[in-house]
Amino acid sequence: MTRTIPFVVAIALGVSACAQVEDEPRAPVSLDTERQCFFTRQIRGYADAPDGPRGQQRFTVDTGPNDDWMFEVLAGCQDLDFSYRIALDTGTQTSLCTGDTVNLIVPRGLSGPPDRCMARLIGKVVEEE
Prior knowledge:
The chain is mainly β and 129 residues long. Strand 9 (101-106) and strand 10 (115-126) form a beta hairpin. The chain has one domain. The protein has no helices and 10 strands. The strands form 2 sheets. Strands 1, 2, 4, 5, 6, 7, 9 and 10 form an 8-stranded antiparallel sheet that branches.
């Protein structure tokens, strides 16, 4: 019997903190929700994103120049807005496509095990011209 070890994609946080700045207005984000995919090995970082229309937590993953992908958290992750790093547990998947779900792992600082919640890839961020 072969055991499958989940493939965890760790996303280093070389970007600024994900805590929102209340005084700074956030522009709406345009998304291309057609089925598109990226390889998990291309992930370079992540950033907080404006919440969804019903208050759902969102974040983007950077896979290259002008290639950002929007994820929506399906169940609240308490420390996501304050975390300096996250990880995506993709199981054995080596690519993610629009509509796929992943386990989001968010550390809780020094206390307790990390928070685990589901997130769905909702589309590729489209740059407004």
